[in-house]
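Work Package 3 (structural annotation) set out to generate three-dimensional models for the target panel prioritized at the project kickoff. During this period the team completed the workflow that converts sequence records into discrete structure tokens, so that structures can be stored uniformly alongside our sequence database. As a representative example, we reproduce one entry of 312 residues exactly as it appears in the project archive.
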Amino acid sequence: MKTHQMALIGVGATGSVLAAALLSKYPDTIIIGRSPGWIDDVGDKGITISGAISYAVPVKNYLSQIGKLQNADPGLIFLCTKTFHLADILQELERVYVPGTKIIATQNGLGIEDLIIDKFGPDAVLRMSLNFGAALKGPGQANTAFFNPPNHLGGFTQKNRELGAQIANMFSDCGLGTEYVDNIRLSIWKKMIMKCTMASICAVTDKTIKDALQHPPTREIADACFQEALAVAQAMGYDLGEGFLEQALDYLQKVGIHKDSMCVDVANQQPTEIDFLGAKIVEYARAREVSTPFYLAMTNLVKSIESNYLEK
């Protein structure tokens, strides 16, 4: 693979894991966060990842502003921020973007790639669907509850197929098993049906994913939401395959011993990612005249909880 200067934006839980993986083999990778003091807090320890995935790597290049990428000319830029920061991040990237640079979105959510494609074109964009769960313990410190490889990575034009396969192999070589897929949107939907359903339920009830599935009242809501999301996926032309729901529920029972990240956002009185999760399902459903009353209710409940602290 051609050697690219790489930059990674966002050092929350997911970003810390991906940054540590890249830094383990590519120490010149540029890490970009929002806090000028982040590198001081991390200090000589660098980034430490524990649990199902383990890394301990130093950080050589850290920037606190995207604008400082102006002279770095990265060939690959990985976006790892929360989705509610995405619009601002893309606006900042427009000022430093160089034609030919590839932007790889790693966030959870539906429709993320469409916003980036609108700004930079389909040839500029790739997307990852990650199959690990991580929680931030402090600056540069994250714990991973599970990793069910492989992650999936894909592009939106045939032109990026070879490069995408090379990036997937690069992550695998860094210890984070990843495969290139030709239909990354399908991979995203397979994961996001689970995420979109359980995030809202967990955020409203403050339960772990496993507890929400085992508690009859919340399980009834989850079952209804799954059926609505499957109907939307079908209306959009995505065939998730026979037995998908049973496989998804089995997967969630095994990995769901932790609270969804939306619970953490609500607990910390931060914006949630609901606009790219449940609300996106509702948006797609309305455009195709698919009824999603349970999704609408859960989405509006999360938005109402948010309003209690965001609109003060």
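The chain has a mean pLDDT of 95.
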